[in-house]
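If I may wish for something, please sit down with the protein I am sending here and say whether tokens and residues agree:
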Amino acid sequence: MADEGIIRAFADVDRMPDPSMLIRAMDDTAQWEAVRELQAHTSARLGVGPGASFLDVGCGPGDVVVAFAKVIGPGGRAVGIDASTTMLDEARRRAAAAGVTAEFEVGDAMALAFPDDTFDAVRSERTFQWLADGEVALAEMVRVTRPGGTVAVIDSDWATFSIDHPDPAVTRKILDHFESGRPGHTVGRRLGRLFRAAGLDDVTVVARAALVTEWDPDTRPGPPGLPPMAMFIESMVEAAALTADEGTSWLADVTRLGRAGDFCASLTIYAACGTKPAG
């Protein structure tokens, strides 16, 4: 596991010894203010109402599908797909606990198993960064959207990720490692261009900076929404991306910053929306 890297684990959740760690990380990230704002923005643009049909590509633990299912009601259809059976099991559990009807299926974002023009609204969040070809995935989302329907994608630009630390050289290695495990690490900044190239109308792009400043290393292994720091550094050392001395020193400093209330990390996240032409 460490040889493959903590970051790469998100691309294959079901192989994790403890997938619940990744579910908790997704839940934490969903609570970032920037993510909540972008979710609210895209939800308003998607305009899902009673009786609508809705698809979430890369639904994870299913909270967005559950929220939309409550609005859609029994006369519509709320569907989530994900590559991970672990995530889908959790999504089904959350839907049952909420008392809503929703469909959760194993699926491939780059080859959606739905006919053309199936859904009124299609969205994806924090999934494109894991895909080898976001253009193909977006084309699939557009294909299954009905004419006049809306497509929305929320994703990050990991080239903007920063962590305040007194050792900038080692920090640069760590930030590069964060990027390297994500095939679409800069997809956030490219969403507007991808949406326009896909033929969507009324394309809008907004961005928010996610700021993580609260982390107590004595009560949780990693900052909210980020990997456990010790495990992440260990994986880099085992992959020869850091020396043991570099890893030990960097971890000691970042832990000290966390205990002092001085931890600071930031990441730019984008949201793009567009309408499928009615013609």
The longest strand covers residues 145-163. The chain has nine helices and seven strands. Residues 7-275 form a domain with the Rossmann fold fold (CATH 3.40.50.150).
